[in-house]
Amino acid sequence: MAVTDHVDLNGFMEGVKKRNPYQPEFVQAVQEVAEDIFEFMQDKEEYHSQQILRRIAEPDRVVSFRVCWEDDAGNIRVQRGWRVQNNNAIGPYKGGIRFHPSVTESVLKFLAFEQTFKNALTGLPMGGGKGGSNFNPKGKSVREIMRFCQSFMTELYRHIGADIDVPAGDIGVGGREIGFMFGQYKRITNNFTGVLTGKGLEWGGSLIRTEATGYGAVYFLENMLATKGENLEGKTAVISGSGNVATHAAEKIVQLGGKVLTLSDSGGFIHDPDGIDQEKIYWVKTHKTHRRGRIEEYVEAFPNATFHAGKTPWGVPCDVALPCATQNELLGEDAKTLVANGCKAVSEGANMPTDLDGVHTFKHAKILYAPGKASNAGGVAVSGLEMSQNSERRSWKEEELQQMLKDIMSGIHNSCIQYGNQGGGYIDYVKGANIAGFKKVADAMLAFGVV
Ligand code: NDP
C-alpha cells in the first residue's frame, strides 16, 4: 500500500518536530498553516496522496556557508551565511536577506516557508526563499559592512540568478547593502541582470519599492475596515518598529487621516499622545536610518512623548494595531490586552509577529486580523514588478506602480475573503490567506508529478 500523509494534524506536526529539532520558529510557522490546510484537504485526495503539504514543508535546499571578513582593526571575523530555497513551483525563488544576530537556520526556514504562500498570494510568478546571516550591522563602519556584503556575495552568487533565485532586503539590509552585494555580483559574473531587487533607481531599481511594504499593509487594513463600512479617518494606531516597514506604515496612516501613537525599537517604545505626524516620521527615518540612533532619543526632540524601556506598545489603547518590527513580538497576553482595549483591526507589517496564542486570541475575538503573509506582501509584489521592469529594460511611472500596488493588495484581500469567509460577517483572514496561497502552489506541484 502507498504511504500517504493521511495522518491527523497532531501526527503530521509530530513528524515536523522530529525532522526539525531545535527549530521552534519553523515548527510554529508550519503549525499555523497546517491548522487550516488539514481542514481544507479533508476531501481532496490528490493533495494527500501526493504528500503536497509535507513537500512544501521540506525546503528544496538549504545552503549554509562561511563568511570571513576583516574588521577595521585588522581582526579576522567569521560569520555564517544561509540561503533557504523553499519552493520554486510557480517561479524563481524570491525573498529577502536578513542581517541580524538573531538569524538562525530555523528563522530563515520559517521565513522562506511563509514567503512561499505570500508570493503566491500576490498573483505574480515567484517562488519562496529567504537568506541571511547572524552578522550584526549595528556599530559597524560602512567599510566593514561593505567588506561583509562582498564576502557574503562571493559565496551566494553561485546559487542565485535572475531566473533562479532573486534575493532582496530585509531587517538590516537596505539599499546600501543591496548596492554592495549587487556590485560584487556584477564584478564576479560580469553580468548586469535583475539578480537582486531593492536596487537604486539609477541601476535597475523600481519606484515605490522602499515604501511598498508599509503602504501595502495600510491599504490592506483599509480594505478590511471597508468590509465594516469604516476607514482610517480619525482612528488611533499603535505601531511597533521604527525601520522601513514601520515608518512607511505610519506615513500612510497619517496620509489617510489616522493618528499614530507609538513606534518602537529593540530598546523599547515611545508614546506620543499628540500623534506622530509626517514631520516627526521624517525625523525618525533620518534618526534611525542615517544617524543610526535609538528611538528613546525621540523624547528629547518631542518632550510631550514618553519612552518605555524594554516594553512593547500593545498596552496603549488604540483602534488599529500594526506590528512592524520582528517575529513573536506580540504574545497571547498582548493580544488579549488589545482586544480588551477595543482594538478593531490588526494588520501585520512584520513576518509572524504574533505568536500562536495571539493568533488564536484574535481569531476567537473575531476582530479584523490580517497575517503578514497577506498584509505585508506589498513589498515583494513591487519586487516582482521590479523584476518585470528589469526583464523589459524599462521603468514604470510612480502613479502606475501605486495603482498596481493598490490593486494587488485588493486582490489579496479578495482571495482571503474567497477562502476565509466564515459567514455572519466574520472573515478568517489567516485561513483565507493560507488556503489561497497553498492551493496555487499545490496545484502547480501536482502538474509536475513527483519531483
Ligand atoms: P528594519 O531593519 O528597517 O527595521 C526593523 C525594526 O524592528 C527596527 O526598528 C528594529 O529595532 C526593530 N527590531 C528588530 N529586531 C527586534 C527585536 N528583537 N525586538 C524589538 N524590535 C526589533 O526592517 P524592516 O522594517 O525592513 O522589517 C521589519 C519586519 O518586516 C521584519 O519582520 C521583516 O521580515 C518584515 N518585512 C519587511 C519587508 C521589507 O520590504 N522591508 C517585506 C515584508 C516583510 P532596532 O533598530 O533596535 O534593531
How would you describe what is shown here?
The protein is α/β, with parallel strands linked by helices. The protein is built from 17 helices and twelve strands. Strand 11, helix 13 (356-365) and strand 12 form a beta-alpha-beta unit. The model is unreliable at 1-5 (pLDDT under 50). Helix 5 (105-121) crosses helix 17 (429-448). 47% of the residues lie in helices and 15% in strands. It has a seven-stranded mixed beta sheet with strand order 9-8-7-6-10-11-12, sandwiched between helices. The protein has a five-stranded mixed beta sheet with strand order 1-2-4-3-5. The longest helix has 23 residues, at 398-420. The two termini are 21 Å apart. Among the domains are: 61-192, Rossmann fold (3-Layer(aba) Sandwich); 211-370, NAD(P)-binding Rossmann-like Domain (Rossmann fold), CATH 3.40.50.720. The chain binds NADPH dihydro-nicotinamide-adenine-dinucleotide phosphate.
Strand order of the largest sheet: 9-8-7-6-10-11-12
SSE sequence, one letter per element: HHHHEEEHEHEHHEHEEHHEEHEHEHHHH
Bound molecules: NADPH dihydro-nicotinamide-adenine-dinucleotide phosphate
Shape: globular
CATH class of the domain at 211-370: Alpha Beta
CATH fold-level topology of the domain at 211-370 = Rossmann fold
Averaged pLDDT, please? Answer: 96
CATH superfamily of the domain at 211-370: NAD(P)-binding Rossmann-like Domain
The structural class is alpha/beta
For the secondary structure, the number of strands is 12
Characterize the biggest β-sheet: 7 strands, mixed
